[in-house]
């Protein structure tokens, strides 16, 4: 288990890097971020060039990525793809893919059932993944198998939230490499939900910080607006939501295997709504400037809105939670 001091140092290093490279998503930046900082290999076993940690440590990186609205492919590569490869139990795939992910030379993504119309016949993959997190290596759960395939076409999508690159992946009878069975796809997806929750906490916390800073600086009637009771109440409510969301996200990221589904559903539901609320209240507190293109408030609101659909809306997580505990 990583110590608190080490986690603080990790957070500081990641924040410093992202502050120095705002909005950068090129391959060189990813290699430096993943390789020099060593963050892409946090959940990769040591024998494959990683740090041998886990999702709890990766959550620190996810939170900082959410705070900075970074478009770097950390969620798809260092969380989802690493988890899918490890859970597959395929030693050949681990040896071939994990070292490249750990040193930043490989990006990857995972396509889950229900998100696509893919099928494998005669060892060939056909169909379209209309909205996929982009990555050079594509892993897809199709039928009863986890397969690796190279898309015959990639089309970058122009979306409302431009801080989360998505692509349409087309497979026109391309050969597949079977990595393992699909038994672990629910667990891998839940790890993605937990990691996304940590990202949402970072974004929500930054919305709160920005709103507090503005409430101290903006004056009306000779007083900072932060001294008005209505603004105080808004900020206090958002603070409660952010801290509660942080507890939910980190509990999910640290949950043992048998409890991950429940805690991921809790985090997916609560953190999504907390981020939407924080982003919306930040715009309200900023007033007129909050609805301008020049201010970042709208970018956080767009990220919060798109995150609410990435692994399903809050009500879907609550329905899944109800099925698990009732």
UniProtKB/TrEMBL annotation:
<dbReference type="GO" id="GO:0016491">
    <property type="term" value="F:oxidoreductase activity"/>
</dbReference>
<dbReference type="InterPro" id="IPR009075">
    <property type="entry name" value="AcylCo_DH/oxidase_C"/>
</dbReference>
<dbReference type="InterPro" id="IPR037069">
    <property type="entry name" value="AcylCoA_DH/ox_N_sf"/>
</dbReference>
<keyword id="KW-0274">FAD</keyword>
<dbReference type="InterPro" id="IPR036250">
    <property type="entry name" value="AcylCo_DH-like_C"/>
</dbReference>
<feature type="domain" description="Acyl-CoA dehydrogenase/oxidase C-terminal">
    <location>
        <begin position="194"/>
        <end position="326"/>
    </location>
</feature>
<comment type="similarity">
    <text>Belongs to the acyl-CoA dehydrogenase family.</text>
</comment>
<dbReference type="InterPro" id="IPR009100">
    <property type="entry name" value="AcylCoA_DH/oxidase_NM_dom_sf"/>
</dbReference>
<keyword id="KW-0285">Flavoprotein</keyword>
<dbReference type="Pfam" id="PF02771">
    <property type="entry name" value="Acyl-CoA_dh_N"/>
</dbReference>
<keyword id="KW-0560">Oxidoreductase</keyword>
<protein>
    <submittedName>
        <fullName>Acyl-CoA dehydrogenase family protein</fullName>
        <ecNumber>1.-.-.-</ecNumber>
    </submittedName>
</protein>
<dbReference type="Pfam" id="PF00441">
    <property type="entry name" value="Acyl-CoA_dh_1"/>
</dbReference>
<dbReference type="InterPro" id="IPR013786">
    <property type="entry name" value="AcylCoA_DH/ox_N"/>
</dbReference>
<feature type="domain" description="Acyl-CoA dehydrogenase/oxidase N-terminal">
    <location>
        <begin position="4"/>
        <end position="104"/>
    </location>
</feature>
